[in-house]
Amino acid sequence: MATRNGAATLPRVLDAYCRLSVPADGWRLLIVDNGSTDGSGELIASYASRLPLRCLHEPAAGKNRALNRALELVLAEPDADDALYVFTDDDATPHADWLVQWQACAQAFPADSVFGGAILPDWAEPPPDWLLALIPTGLTYGLTSPSMADGPVFPGLVWGANMAVRRAAFVAGHRFDVAVGPNGAEYAMGSETELTRRLALLGHRARFYGGARVTHHIRRHQVEIDYVLQKAWRFGRGKFRQDPPGRFAEWRRVPRWMWLRYLKEMLAWARAALTGDVGSKFSHRWELAYLRGYFHEAWRGSLPARKTVLVTSYSGELGGMELRMAQEVRYLQAAGHGAVLAMRRFAGLTAWTQRLAREQVTVAEFDPPAFFEGNWRWRDLRRWRAHWFGGGRLRAFRADLVHVAFCWTTYGASLLWLAQRCRLPTVISVHNAFPPARFTAWHERLLRQAFSGVRGVYAVSASAMAHFMAIYQPYLPQSARLAVIPNPVDVERFRPSLAARLQARMRLQVPQQALVIGTVARLAEQKRPALAINLLAALRQRFPDLYLVLAGDGPLEATLRGQAERLGLTPWVIFTGFVADVHEVMPALDVHLLMSRNEGFGIATIEAMACGIPAVATDVPGSADILRDSPAGTLIPAHGLAAAVVAVGDLLADPARRAAMGRCGRDVAVSRYSNDVVGKQVSAFYDGLL
């Protein structure tokens, strides 16, 4: 617990601790004296002989700062990750079986990470009945309803006077937010709920357990009207800080719908005042105080000084570009910037969002009307809608810079134009080698507007940059920064490993002595997976124990299964479906194929190289940038199967050559494409643009 001038309530609380039943594994009490001036420190010290007690001192005011100080101490000591850290207040008196109940709860629900216990009131002066009927006692006094049933609970209902969190959450780096909670002055509420809600977004489950009980002392002044309204105002301030940006269109940093709600509450308050309805009048005063607190924090609150980048695109599926966009957010966060990933909805977005949330990568849905991409009817109407509706949503993200990823020739231009209309500077990343394009006068005018705010462009390959500049150089400001920054690979996850190879083959049910070729790619026309099946058919006579792994999903899956069946290859073609953890599949291969008709870069190629697997790819821009004159793999003609049959066959027949290629590929992946190397290039690109 943290205490600041708690001498009035601490004796009763610490006496109750002396009467606690001792749980089987023992317990420790850590109190942080948060700059007390009323003798609290001496009072706590007087209990040192009666309790397993340690007192720390944190002079800077702030409950969360004090709790973080305690966490740094206990996390430096060895302990199990499922150990339970129980948090409470200096005016919360525990029942005698409190810790025994918490231990029983932790053992009974090992899959849960965040727990809230029962908090009962200890009124210094009983409040009027009408007051309790009109206010949220949880928000106002941190109490839990006696009717709350044990079980899963919304994490925002876990209150700080009686909550528990497993050690693992803090080992992962999470701490209390020092910008909210009691700090010795006027403050924004949300001391504990900011943490519990953040943990819930990352997959930590919350549970209410009524068996662990404390009694929370409510002082006389805390039942007065002014105090209750002040708490509503503080709640509004905390709500602003906890609301993620970009959820709603805003006006003057406040969601538009909230302005309407404020007007309605004002009218309802006036009506209640005229009719003499005292209860209704107070209810509306509470709502108005909450809204004013939200407005106050939006306009006058101290906001983070760091710059924020919104990473977005006109995307329709989860592929290499989307994975790179998520990596961009990680790089920006590592450099100390704020970053949000904003995407159109597509199949698999929800599951991907949940995986990214575990890494504290925020994904928001953002789908303003597109007017540039495709041949839209009523495109000027769509542009008008994008301006008036999409613009408000874009500004709501409160970004300082917008990063627009171009997946194809014009796919991203609408977002670029919208950012310019919102007076937000932009950078562009180019993820493919675009074919030549011709624009109408209508497009030309909008392109000049859209590109006027561009501060920099980077492409994932030299070929992608050359194709992009051939189209867009006339519209690009001369001051724009240009760079080629390849896609990265996690060389710690993707690495040569005999154990990983054996496990991958067991998972795929492939004989350990078999030869395996494979493709990690979307089952779509661009990747031409049908060629890989034809290649298998051509090589089967020479290599009867040869298998093909197609790792990915896509619109061609049914067609490809039919092709394998017609060729009599069904037992030797393995369809994995979508693979979230590619590093668990890639080691099974002897040769990786990427037979695309076009590529921006080819992430799967460098993932194979990092695993020490020879890479074979068609000689197209993107893949050629990686493998041209490289000892790590070989290029084959983009059209025609005969050369591919010879090249891949020769590799399969020469284990020593494959091993040499694998060693070279690993060296290249580490020195040129590792996260550390590419991350430094990204950081240098943004340097000075934010």
Automatic annotation (TrEMBL):
Where on the tree of life does the source sit, at the highest rank?
Answer: Bacteria
Residue intervals of the Glycosyltransferase 2-like domain: 1-122
Q: Where is the Glycosyltransferase subfamily 4-like N-terminal domain?
A: 319-493
Residues forming the Glycosyl transferase family domain are 508-666
Output the PANTHER family linked to this UniProt entry.
SULFOQUINOVOSYL TRANSFERASE SQD2
Record's protein name = Glycosyltransferase
Source organism of this protein record: Duganella levis
Q: Lineage of the native species? A: Bacteria, Pseudomonadati, Pseudomonadota, Betaproteobacteria, Burkholderiales
